[in-house]
Amino acid sequence: MARFRITGGTPLEGTASVSGSKNGSLPLLAAALLVDDEVVLHNIPAISDIKTMIRMLRALGARAEFREDGGLVIDGSSVNSVSAPYDLVRRMRGSFYVAGPLLARFGEAQVPLPGGCVIGSRPVDFHVRGFKALGAEVEEKYGVMHATAKRLRGTRIYMDPRLRSVGATVNLMLAASLADGKTVIENASREPEVVDCQEFLAACGARIDGIGTTTLEITGVDRLHGAEWSAIPDRMEAGTYLIAGALTRGDVTIEPVEPDHLRMVTEMLQQTGCSVEFSDRRVRLRMDSRPLAVDVMTAPYPGYPTDLQPNTGVLMSIARGASVVEETIFDARFNYVDELLRMGADVRVMEGAAIFKGVPQLFGAPVVATDIRAGAALILAGLCAEGVTEISGGTLVDRGYEDITAKLRGLGAHIEALPEADPDAADAECLP
Questions:
Q1: What does pLDDT average to over the chain?
Q2: Which of 131, 203, 289, 413 qualifies as a cystine partner to 408, CB 3.0-4.6 A?
Q3: What domains does the chain contain, in order, with CATH numbers?
Q4: Strand, coil or helix: 269
Q5: What is the four-CA torsion angle of 336, 20, 186, 31, rounded to 10 degrees?
Q6: Is the CB of residue 202 less than 8 Å from the CB of residue 208?
Q7: Is the pLDDT reported for residue 124 higher than 90?
Q8: Residue 258 — very low, low, confident or very high, per pLDDT cuts 50/70/90?
Q9: Rounded CA gap, 292 and 274, in Å?
Q10: Sequence-ordered alpha helix ranges (H) in 284-389
């Protein structure tokens, strides 16, 4: 799909199923490169970013196939290349995760600098510094990182405590799993998706102490063995549907979820006036009034997730009162605001924060998605807006959300996916 057309104003009701975590699955697929055996991964979402990573694994020589039961089988014993194709890396930042496994297992990695969403500066400096600390020689030339090492050596690595980089934590703990000796990573990310990857590595035979904490002690082993693993539910998808329920004054149940992974989001929603109830691995949200404005600041886990900041901004745009939404992770996460203004929002961005003065109603308009989460936020804006909203750039949303159109329609939303309009066809109509 390339466009969404939404007729807003319908309260969402019913139950929506959450897919496996996009942010959690990508590290799992990369970690499979460390293993010269089969691994089987379950609950992997069928989204375009995962398809890109599977193509990456195959380009490196690994076998990666889905079974009839949905399990993804990856056999890394046939890997025969350490050079990641630029055409794949430029599409998705998560593809840079292959650098650590290739360097650790084969002593060399040649990976172009990554692309992905346009949400600000996300350099790979922390990754490169970590590889160098582990004993690799690293050269960056013409947009390609080339790293070599006979065998990586354990060391102590200090991460920036303000950021606790997810990507660098993943890449360095993957590399350290096969290094010689002990590696200590200070100020490591505690994001649930990172912890899930740590537990998967341990299931494959990695020796990791401090799982789930900000200090990891990884004692390298000679080889890892195969294992079977299931990715955690996608908390960003779950949060998106919960906020959609709040925006439309609906009654939605989301499953499966890990309650602890959603605490910051559900606490925010309760402050806006929503009723939120957890039951086992289900969460039900009910909302029957205009939300109250609350201030939100993103932060590394267990703080408020940056990936849900755009959705939260949409909620604040129709809230009763004024609020400040502060972004501390990505410096261009407010790209969606210009599109919200087209829909009637009253919001001003300044110095890493957006100041929202809630309006009673948004209005449908043609808007453009600039990244995955901005696209999801604009869908939510369309759901609560009066009239019709048409969103271009829907392909970006497909990178992070599995079957979002079908799932929202299952909740009663009036949304359809359309092919992108052909500008050449429009030009042809103007010709004699």
A1: 94
A2: 413
A3: 3-19+233-420 (3.65.10.10), 22-230 (3.65.10.10)
A4: helix
A5: -120
A6: yes
A7: no
A8: very high
A9: 9
A10: 309-317, 337-342, 372-384
- What does the alpha-carbon distance between residue 333 and residue 327 come to, in Å, rounded to a whole number? 7
The answer, yes or no, to whether residue 118 has pLDDT greater than 50, is no
Residue 423 has pLDDT above 70, yes or no: no
**Residue position matching structure tokens 């929503």:** 274
Q: Which helix (H) or strand (E) holds 29?
A: helix 22-31
* Number of helices followed by number of strands (H, E) in the chain: 15, 23
Alpha carbons 50 and 266: distance in angstroms, whole number: 28
Q: Which residue in the block uniquely carries the two structure tokens 């002690």?
A: 217
Handedness of CA 198, 203, 207, 212 (dihedral sign): positive
Residue for token pair 């600039």 = 370
Q: How many CB atoms lie within 10 A of CB 52?
A: 18
Instruction: Please report which confidence band the pLDDT of residue 431 belongs to, taking 50, 70 and 90 as the band edges.
Output: low
Question: Pick from 417, 415, 334: which is nearest to 382 by CA?
Answer: 415
Q: Where are the beta strands (DSSP E) in 124-181?
A: 137-141, 144-148, 156-158
Are the C-beta atoms of residues 363 and 7 closer than 8 Å to each other?
no
**What's the Cα-to-Cα distance from 114 to each of 89, 98, 162, 214, 343, rounded to whole Å?**
5, 11, 22, 26, 33
Structure tokens at 416: 């359809």
* Cα–Cα distance for residue pair 166/23, rounded to 1 Å: 10
Do residues 28 and 266 make contact, with C-beta atoms less than 8 angstroms apart?
no
Per the document, the length of the chain is 432
State residue 115's pLDDT score: 55
pLDDT digits (tens, 9 = 90+) for 86-96: 999 988 888 99
Closest CA to 418 of 383, 380, 389, 378: 389
Active site residues: 117
- Residue recorded with tokens 């606790």: 164
Residue 104 DSSP SS3: helix
Pairing of strands 366-368, 353-357: unpaired
What pLDDT is stored for residue 1 in this prediction?
Answer: 53
- Which tens digits make up the pLDDT trace of 263-280? 999 999 999 999 999 999
